[in-house]
Amino acid sequence: MPLWTRASHGSATSSIRTVHLLAAGLWLGGLVPLGWLLRRARTAQQDAGVLVICDALRHFSQMGYVAVALIALTGAINSILLVGSLRAVLATPYGRLLALKILLFLAMVFVALVNRFHFGPRVGRDAAALGALCRTVGLEHGLGLCILVVVSVLGIWPPRLA
Fold first, then answer.
1. CATH at residue 68
2. Does the residue 32 lie in any domain?
3. How far, in Å, CA of 61 to CA of 63, rounded?
4. pLDDT digit string, tens, across residues 90-118
5. How many domains does the chain divide into?
6. Domain containing 83: what range?
7. Residue 9 neighbours by CB under 8 Å, 6+ apart
8. What CA–CA distance (Å, rounded) separates 69 from 89?
9. Residue 101, domain member (yes or no)
């Protein structure tokens, strides 16, 4: 690939998209083993399991902060490059579907914040918190899967359908 091609606008968009997809895959993909670990700890009901969960939650949260920040930043840049304006978001089918994706992402972030600041800190002290956390991590994952459905449609539609 020639140097001028790699330095072009298309290459920058491709790099932004790659970071976006990697961050999203890290967050959504990380929910699967986290949910599995939560279910295992819930059925085992051992103190060692709770310690492992607390440690896993701390590490997952640290990774989650970075992933969500990268998703938001690269998503905003990509949206501006693809759609062009707020008017286009509201006036085109592609833009409205993109708005749905953004709303689902914000809902996912909200559930993640509830998990992080409400249920997560209570896991070691409240037996019901582990079950609630297990359910809300499932909800978070379900929202992420809904985003994948929306993305699959966005991938086959041209961005600017006026």
1. 1.20.120
2. yes
3. 5
4. 888 888 999 999 999 999 999 999 999 99
5. 1
6. 14-154
7. none
8. 22
9. yes
pTM score of the predicted model:
0.86
pLDDT per residue over 136-152, tens digit each?
999 999 999 999 999 99
Output the CA–CA distances (angstroms, integers) from residue 21 to 6, 71, 88, 158, in the order listed.
19, 8, 23, 19
SS3 147: helix
d(CA 130, CA 34): 12
DSSP 97-143: HHHHHHHHHHHHHHHHHHIIIIIGGGTTT-HHHHHHHHHHHHHHHHH
Residue 1 lies in a domain: no
| Residue 4 covered by a domain | no
Please give the structure tokens belonging to residue 57: 């939650």
Q: Which tokens is 118 given?
A: 């409400």
